[in-house]
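Researcher: Structure for this, please.
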Amino acid sequence: MRGLHAYSIVGAVLFVSVYCCFYGAQACLKEEREALLQLKDSINKHSNATYYVLEDWVGEDCCQWPAIICFSSSSRVIEIFLNSARDSSLGVWYPNATLFAQFKELESLDLSDNQIGGWVVLEGLCGLKNLLSLNLGDNKFEALPPCLLSNLSALEVLFLYGNYLKGDLPGLLKQCEKSRSRFFPFRLSDVEQTEVF
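Model: Predicted structure, token format:
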């Protein structure tokens, strides 16, 4: 009889564990969901156009939304894919860069082809300490703030193609290489430039 009771307890513990893992997982964090919804609202503000992925950003759990990936144990957002989300007829977009500070465990961010402009936007990304991959290609950036390369110590992949970068870009990249032995898989020829140096 004792053996049967022990098996019943083990079975109940297993059932509760499996149930919690598959059905009782936490939804995404409220502050991350609110930041994503604010980004969604600002992307195509003053336009009837809506990026098809953003239409499905509804409900309490942003971990279930398309273009968003969360870490399963913490329910924190770790990947955001907003490539080509902005209606190009709206012109340059200056998103509220402080919204990105909510994503404390973000590892991958794709903001390519969104007509983003302005140094302030990039400075807002400088606090993302866990960022491994950042795609800023096909936007309207003309310069990179020093903090972008110096503060993002985990960064392994950086895409800058299709921007209008000016200034001492090679000097900035050399400074970055000296400060840490991190490999950046891009070449200066990958960065389209106008008025080079």
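Researcher: Any notable elements?
Model: DSSP finds five helices and seven strands in the chain. The two ends are 83 Å apart (CA to CA).
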